[in-house]
């Protein structure tokens, strides 16, 4: 099936990056490309069905979205890929590793969703860090509650970066996204299945992530015998935009464990 995508001109191993829910491949590139600079990897950024420039050409279920990504990987890549993703994209990447491990060389999971049922998520009990006055002034009022919950590094500069990412790329299909997120099949059918993925994995979480938290991700490490888990203070659900320097350092460590050469 068709998925809109961008890729770098490099000829190294493929690294396929999957977006956060409702976000585009342009936003994903802004999040991950600084962490990958100089690696020589063939960076590929996908728009999921109903996201960015990809039409909603599958049923509004996470399994259908995952199957579409797997079909794209089967049709476009000759060898297993490194998979990276944020939030929902990381949730899908982990699902692909469970269902089609033959397609996956390693996983970089940033603020991954573990359970799609919001009432089942274990979120931080502590209040978020105190922001400077007026830190949300540039954001639309409709986004204030979301950003207040999602962000750990709470500054006007971070808000501006996140807003630019949210508004980048194609428009997506809001009706499809709503049906997917609110439908009975938002969770993958094997979400709670205990399947071990033996490849190198890095799970990176934000200490102040009020959307998916950080503790469910630690418990999920039993699936990854070669996994590294990191929780970053002053970071929330938009961690790549909040702490890009730390993300780069942790990404370089993950790439070394995958056997991919990185700059010294």
TrEMBL record:
Kindly list any coiled-coil regions of this protein: none
Protein origin, superkingdom: Bacteria
What InterPro entries is this protein classified in? Answer: AB_hydrolase_1, AB_hydrolase_fold, AB_hydrolase_sf, Epox_hydrolase-like
* MF (Gene Ontology): catalytic activity
Which SUPFAM superfamilies does its entry note? alpha/beta-Hydrolases
Sequence intervals crossing the membrane:
none
- Outline the extent of the AB hydrolase-1 domain: 32-245
Q: Which PANTHER family match?
A: HYDROLASE, PUTATIVE (AFU_ORTHOLOGUE AFUA_4G13070)-RELATED (PTHR43798:SF6), MONOACYLGLYCEROL LIPASE (PTHR43798)
Protein name according to UniProt: Pimeloyl-ACP methyl ester carboxylesterase
User: Which organism is this entry from?
Assistant: Micromonospora violae
Organism ancestry: Bacteria, Bacillati, Actinomycetota, Actinomycetes, Micromonosporales
